[in-house]
Amino acid sequence: MSSMTKGERNDLARLVRQRGRVMKACAANTGDRSAATNTGDQSAAMVEGENSIAIASGVGAKAKAARGCGLVLCEYDDDYNLKKVHSGIAGRGRIKPDVWYTIKDGRMVAA
């Protein structure tokens, strides 16, 4: 996280404090063609570099990506079995760049 700007660190700190609960982990990457991955429940992944991908596969996870970068989030059933994998590219379709996304009611939505 040492390569992150002060604004990026503040953004992550806000995410960690949201709704009074602590996120278990956050992965961030600012390099080009890189990946930020996180598997913990209520965790987060974000990418800033070009052609990168943010993968947050835990229950209640969040992901954020710069324009042209990918997002991957997983959906689970009530017994925590993998139900569906959701993905998109920021800046294409309904996925906006630099916005945190999560899964709600079977859809990838702004967090």
Uncertain residue ranges: none
How far apart are the termini? 22 Å
Q: What is the makeup of the main sheet?
A: 4 strands, mixed
DSSP strand tally: 9
How much of the sequence is in beta strands?
Answer: 35-45%
Give me the secondary-structure category. Answer: mainly beta
Strand order of the largest sheet: 2-4-6-7
Annotation field: number of helices: 1
Mean pLDDT: 80
Taken together, the total number of domains comes to 1
State the shape.
globular
Any descriptors?
111 residues; mainly beta; four-stranded mixed β-sheet; three-stranded parallel β-sheet; 1 helix; 9 strands; globular
Can you walk me through this structure?
It is built from one helix and nine strands; from the N terminus they run αβββββββββ. The chain is globular, with a radius of gyration of 13 Å. A four-stranded mixed β-sheet has the order 2-4-6-7, with no helix packed on it. A three-stranded parallel β-sheet has the order 1-3-5, covered by helices on one side. It is mainly β and 111 residues long. The longest helix has 12 residues, at 6-17.
Topology readout:
Blueprint: H1 6-17, E1 26-29, E2 35-38, E3 44-47, E4 53-56, E5 62-65, E6 70-76, E7 82-89, E8 101-104, E9 107-110
Parallel strand pairs: 1-3, 2-4, 3-5, 4-6
Antiparallel strand pairs: 6-7, 8-9
Concise description?
Helix content is 11%, strand content 39%. It is built from 1 helix and 9 strands. The chain has one helix at 6-17; strands spanning 26-29, 35-38, 44-47, 53-56, 62-65, 70-76, 82-89, 101-104, 107-110.
